[in-house]
C-alpha cells in the first residue's frame, strides 16, 4: 500500500486530523492526475484489506473478496460526491445517497454520549467489512457535527478530484493546489475564451 508522504501534498496543506484523516486517505486511494505511482491503489481485495486492517479495525482473519472491493469503491466514490459538494456545492447524485444509506445500515451505527455529553456515532460491535467501513462513515458523520467536515473538499477539476483539508480561516480553498490545478484551470479558461474570441 502506498504511504502518502505529506510533503507530496499538492497544496502543502496538512492532512485532516484523526479520525477524519482516514476518510481523506481512503478517498485519495484514487489519484487521477498527480503523477504518484499508480492511479488506483485499491487494485486488489488484498490491498483493500490491508487498508481496512491498518486504519479501520478490520479483523485480519476476515476475508475480503471482489464483491467487497467493488462495494468499497462505490462507497469511496459516494464519499467523494459529498466532498465535491463541500467544495462547489454541486448536487450529490441519488445513487451516492443510496450507497451511503446502504453502508450505514449494514454498519449498524449507534449513538453514544461521550465524556463531554456530546453524542457521537460509532460502530456498536464487530470487526467485519461492514463495521470497518462503518468506522469511516461514523468519522464522517461525526465531523458534520463538529463542523470540520465542510473543510474536507475534493478538488473540482474533473481530472483531479484529490481530497484536501482546507485549513484557511474562511474555508475559501478551492483547488488541491493553486500551482497544480488552479493554474491549469485558469489556463484552460483562458484558452476557451481565446477560442471563443477567435470564432
Ligand atoms: Zn486538483
The H/E string reads HHHHEEHEEH
**How large is the radius of gyration?**
18 Å
Strand proportion: 5-15%
**Assembly form of the protein:** single chain
Helix content: 40-55%
Q: What's the rounded overall pLDDT mean?
A: 89
First-residue to last-residue Cα separation: 49 Å
Describe, in plain words, how this protein is organized in 3D.
The chain has helices at about 20-25, 45-55, 65-90, 95-105, 130-145, 180-199; strands at about 110-115, 120-125, 150-155, 165. By secondary structure, it is mainly alpha-helical. Helix 3 (about 65-90) crosses helix 4 (about 95-105) and helix 4 (about 95-105) crosses helix 5 (about 130-145). The mean pLDDT is about 90. The chain binds zinc ion. The site of zinc ion has 8 residues, from helix 6.
Amino acid at each position: 500500500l502506498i504511504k502518502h508522504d505529506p510533503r507530496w501534498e499538492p497544496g502543502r496543506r496538512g492532512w485532516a486530523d484523526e479520525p477524519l484523516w482516514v476518510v481523506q486517505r481512503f478517498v485519495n486511494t484514487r489519484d487521477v492526475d498527480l503523477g504518484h505511482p499508480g492511479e488506483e491503489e485499491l487494485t486488489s481485495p488484498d490491498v483493500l484489506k490491508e487498508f481496512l486492517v491498518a486504519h479501520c479495525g478490520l479483523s485480519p482473519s476476515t476475508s475480503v473478496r471482489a464483491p467487497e472491493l467493488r462495494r468499497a469503491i462505490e462507497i469511496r466514490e459516494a464519499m467523494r460526491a459529498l466532498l465535491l459538494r463541500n467544495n462547489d456545492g454541486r448536487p450529490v447524485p441519488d445513487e451516492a445517497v443510496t450507497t451511503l444509506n446502504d453502508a450505514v445500515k449494514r454498519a449498524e451505527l449507534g449513538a453514544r454520549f461521550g465524556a463531554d455529553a456530546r453524542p457521537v456515532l460509532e460502530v456498536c460491535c464487530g470487526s467485519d467489512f461492514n463495521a470497518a467501513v462503518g468506522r469511516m462513515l461514523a468519522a464522517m458523520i461525526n465531523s458534520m457535527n463538529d463542523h470540520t467536515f465542510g473543510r474536507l473538499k475534493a478538488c473540482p477539476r474533473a481530472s483531479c478530484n484529490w481530497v484536501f483539508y482546507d485549513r484557511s480561516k474562511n474555508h475559501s480553498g478551492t483547488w488541491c493546489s493553486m500551482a497544480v490545478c488552479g493554474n491549469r484551470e485558469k489556463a484552460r479558461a483562458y484558452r476557451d475564451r481565446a477560442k471563443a474570441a477567435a470564432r
